[in-house]
Write a structure and sequence with these properties.
This protein has 22 helices and 23 strands. A hairpin with a 5-residue loop joins strand 8 and strand 9.
């Protein structure tokens, strides 16, 4: 009450002065509090924001590890790639920017807008790629107009360079952008959206060795985002070096010999299991996938009826046809079903249970023993022997050689093939096994399926007389200091037991196939090297009578109905070093279509060996 009276007794001027003074004091106090908050409480946050406004942290991609052949010849490397990116936070007028940039890049505004929208899934401080793998001229033109292009960056990044193009593409694999699903898994915790990752084969399985470690650089920019200077650099570390078991020269020879035909070929070192050459045709160029394959290119590959994306060496399953007769002969000799001198009269067909099974030679082979049966591929001889042996013993013998199950190929995608038995048919079809099915299986038809890799392993096992070797594709992996990180050793999966006499009897027949008159594999004959081999011609459809045979306009069997051509071999016969398996899809004749390919591979291998010995001398 007293205070109110005193206040009222003060002159008006004094009252106003006091009000203004209190108001001024409160405002000044608020300013002090704000200054204290900014200087003390928010110092670190504001300091970081200030630095961010004048600096940028740019990621430096690590060069992916190079891939070499067994002799140190470079197969896959990296090349510099120029790309144009944009820092979104530095762009005030996107439309104006794209209107100026599009003509310089030779693209349209819609394409740039699509890249911008796609980049919104990245953090705002990360550059968004607008154009990649541009020419040096385009990059320099953009740099010349940098004042008119706020936020635009020109960067140089390493890009995978497949020096052999499509050669061995199915073994090496390709790269692609990491997917959202992959980013959510523990395996890809170190990846960020937009990063490249191995998608198939070697690039996928050994991605952790190949990818290296990213670096970064701190740069200072002006208000328009233009680079002023580089402040700090943490260099990227390249991925490790991988040395394959492949021999580039042998690989090229196999590619050239195969030409435009479809199918697969593989060459193995019979002492180590090393894959010396691997061909799957048709092939593709892995470079198409490096920065994202175009839709029409992907459609062309995916819809090609010859399946260029499939590695037919490990996943193509074919009836082994007469190449399977090697296993039948070995098993029959071991079980005592036949001896080397037993003769069976081939009159061109074999009848059992009212069914007639033809020999490929209509008029028959006449009296035939083991060596002649292999040399001339007499079906009737093997019909009789296979039936006496029985499907279960035949199945067990085939599995010993690696048929009917994966043989341990170290990269994904290997198929198992099929080696049937009575129990197998009950399990899958719930039906009994019939004698006629044993007859067909004895010549590698019917339910029997195998991969080219399995046939090569089988042939290497015959060549080294019993050691089933695990195939190898990696010779060693090294870091850049020369430290060996991975070095697979020769691995024997199992040993198949046959007497030396049995091995010799079958080898004599295989040598005769290539080197004696009437041998079905004479097209693989070499003058200076004794090749042991076996032909095969596998039916892709049920064999019809001559009257029913479907023919095209030229009077020929349509391509899709033609039998596959197979050839397996090893050399030199007296001291084997290399085993080869070839499948030419719809090639019709193993001797004529597949044999010359195996011959070219073996000839190149022996020529290279001779040259190496001369060089050492």
């Amino acid at each position: 009450m007293g205070l109110d009276l005193r206040w009222k007794e003060l002159p008006v001027v004094q009252r106003r002065f006091l009000i203004y003074s209190v108001a001024a004091a409160m405002i000044f106090l608020l300013l002090l509090l704000r200054l204290w908050y900014l200087q003390i409480i928010s110092y670190e946050v504001l300091q970081e924001r200030s630095v961010r406004n004048r600096t940028r942290v740019l990621a430096l991609d690590a060069p992916r590890g190079p891939i070499y052949d067994r002799n140190g010849i470079l197969l896959v490397d990296n090349r510099p790639s120029f790309q144009i990116s944009v820092m979104r936070q530095d762009v005030e007028d996107r439309d104006a920017l794209f209107k100026r940039l599009a003509p310089l890049l030779g693209t349209n505004i819609e394409g740039l807008e699509a890249r911008w929208q796609e980049g919104k899934r990245f953090p705002v401080y990360r550059p968004v790629v607008l154009a990649e793998d541009v020419s040096r001229d385009v990059m320099e033109t953009v740099q010349e107009h940098s004042v008119e292009l706020p936020g635009i960056l020109t960067e140089v990044r390493p890009v995978r360079d497949y020096l052999e193009h499509g050669s061995a593409a199915h073994l090496i694999g390709y790269l692609g952008e990491v997917t959202e699903t992959e980013l959510q898994s523990d395996e890809f915790t170190d990846y960020r959206p937009g990063d490249s990752v191995g998608k198939t084969a070697l690039e996928r399985t050994f991605d952790s060795y190949l990818r290296g470690a990213k670096g970064r650089k701190l740069v200072e920019v002006d208000v328009q985002g233009k680079l002023l200077r580089q402040l700090q650099v943490e260099p990227a570390y390249p991925g490790n070096k991988i040395y394959l078991t492949l021999d580039r020269g042998l690989q090229r020879a196999a590619d050239e010999a195969f030409g435009d035909q479809s199918g697969a070929a593989i060459a193995l070192d019979i002492k180590t299991g090393d894959i010396l050459a691997m061909v799957s045709r048709p092939t593709f160029n892995p470079a198409l996938f490096v920065r994202g394959i175009a839709g029409d290119e992907w459609k062309k590959l995916a819809q090609d009826p010859r399946h260029p994306l499939q590695n037919k060496v490990i996943s193509g399953q074919y009836p082994p046809a007469s190449t399977f007769k090697i296993v039948v002969a070995l098993a029959a000799l071991r079980e005592g079903v036949v001896g080397t001198k037993r003769t069976i009269d081939c009159k061109g067909d074999f009848v059992i249970g009212g069914s007639r099974y033809r020999c490929w030679k209509k008029r028959g082979h006449g009296p035939t023993n083991l060596k002649k049966a292999l040399r001339e591929s007499c079906d009737v001889w093997f019909y009789n022997v296979g039936l006496e042996l029985g499907i279960d013993k035949l199945s067990a013998a085939a599995k010993e050689f690696g048929l009917g199950s994966p043989v341990g190929y170290p990269l994904p995608g290997e198929r198992s093939g099929v080696i049937p038995s009575q129990e197998w048919k009950r399990r899958y079809y719930n039906k009994p096994w019939y004698a006629g099915e044993t007859v067909i299986a004895s010549i590698g038809q019917g339910f029997v399926l195998s991969t080219p890799l399995q046939l090569a392993v089988m042939m290497a096992t015959v060549a080294n007389q019993g050691k089933v070797l695990k195939p190898q594709v990696i010779r060693r992996i090294e870091d850049w200091d020369g430290n060996v990180l991975v070095a697979p050793e020769t691995e024997v999966i199992r040993e198949v037991k046959y007497t030396p006499k049995v091995w010799k009897a079958v080898e004599d027949g295989l040598v005769a196939v290539v080197n004696e008159p009437h041998g079905t594999g004479h097209a693989a004959h070499l003058d200076d090297v004794v090749v042991a081999g076996k032909t095969g011609t596998s039916q892709v459809v049920r064999r019809k009578s001559d009257e029913e045979e479907e023919l095209d306009d030229k009077g020929e069997i349509p391509y899709r109905l033609r039998p596959h051509a197979l050839f397996v071999a090893y050399a030199p016969a007296e001291k084997p070093e290399i085993a080869v398996a070839v499948v030419v899809e719809h090639g019709q004749s193993g001797g004529r279509a597949a044999g010359p390919i195996a011959k070219a591979i073996i000839a190149r291998y022996m020529a290279d060996k001779k040259a190496a010995l001369l060089e050492e001398d």
